[in-house]
Amino acid sequence: MDAKFSKFKNKVSLLLEANTSISTISTTLNKTKRNIYNAISRIKKKKNKEFNLKRASRERIEKLSTREKRIINRDLTRSPKKVNKRVLIENDLPISKRSL
Description:
Layout: H1 7-17, H2 22-29, H3 33-48, H4 53-57, H5 66-78, H6 84-91
Helix pairs in contact: 1-3, 2-3
């Protein structure tokens, strides 16, 4: 999967591939050297980033059914000090602890 860059980063990466110096790049693009170095680091980071397609294909459950909401509310009203993890384990709900 190819990384998508902004116009500025695209120009910087093309100039880097042509082996131009940082000072030349900064004068042609009218940016400071610090901006160029930051862009280079962001480009390298984005090119080295690997995308985990298995993780992306798994869907995150975003909504609960009304029945599951009732279960959680009833359980928490009966024992308000109960931890989220314990609520999920006891009621066998298909959501993660973070989505509560």
